[in-house]
Amino acid sequence: MQESTAVQFLQEHGVLHRERNCSCGNPMSLSVQDGGRPPRWRCHKASCGRDISVRKGTWFEGRQATKVNVFECVFP
């Protein structure tokens, strides 16, 4: 399964955020690169440039869960 497909599925089922706002107050966009770097939320404001893990603020934060582990948790 592609990373982007997995992220979309988890967003649709309320496991991952669908949208985020940066600490500077601006909206963030989700950057997903299949087969590359893990998904990140990136601030829209060029002068800020903050990015955070897609796991931040979810029950995945601090865990090393694989896609298989995630699907087993969501659909036991």
Task: Give a quick precis of the structure.
Helix content is 24%, strand content 18%. By secondary structure, the chain is of the alpha+beta class. Strands 1-2-3-4 form a four-stranded antiparallel beta sheet, with no helix packed on it.
From the structure above, extract its key features.
76 residues; 2 helices; four-stranded antiparallel sheet; single chain; alpha+beta
Major sheet, described briefly? 4 strands, antiparallel
Poorly predicted residue ranges: none
Total number of strands? 4
In DSSP terms, counting alpha (H) and pi (I) runs of 4 or more, how many helices? 2
Mean pLDDT across every amino acid position = 83
* H/E element sequence: HEEEEH
What portion of the residues fall into strands of 2 or more residues?
Answer: 15-25%
- What class would the helix/strand composition place it in? alpha+beta
Number of domains: 1
Cα distance spanning the termini: 19 Å
Helix content: 10-25%
Radius of gyration: 13 Å
Shape: globular
Q: Numbering strands along the chain, what is their spatial order in the largest sheet?
A: 1-2-3-4
